Amino acid sequence: MLPAWDDGSTVTVTESGVEKKTTKPPARYTEGSLIKGMQEAWRFAEDPAQSARLKEAKGIGTPATRDTIIEGLKKQGLIEVEKKKLKASELGMAVYTILQAEAPEILDPAATAEMELALDEILSAKNETDPVVSSLVARAVDFNEKMKTRGSAGQRIDVKVKTDGGPSGTKPSQAAVSFANKIAKTAGCTVPK
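Given the sequence above, the corresponding structure tokens read:
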């Protein structure tokens, strides 16, 4: 506590010092704590309106899909398990960096909650299927067109990621390569090696 003194008063310093302290990062998620975090995503929103939307949506994902989402992220090599703790892989961080720059709305949990609420409204007959699905498709088409336009303008996003051929350490199957080539042909680009 500082003593009360008037502006311009002369004071004498009797003691000073420095306390050596360090910060500790939050603990990494386990699969269980991540599922709980997805369920309670509203706690992490800074905007009260977003928090309310996430709370109403009961978080991101559904109880039936949350563990499947995590498994999918692991299979795609976007997250890794290290000593029973989850961490973003180098590829996962590269994808996050690109999405943060190119389409931050995709990373917004409140946007996910809004989509899930809209889908829930179809189930409860509060909304029609066609407008909801059309709205969701329009968002995806907008993002796809943005990336196509960016690519056709010669703007590239170079991502340097070391990989061992995939999360399982194997090369992609011929079916996966064929499918990727088909998508690339449609988009007017080539699949990188």
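Residues 115 and 135 are 9 Å apart (CA to CA). Try to locate this feature in the token string yourself.
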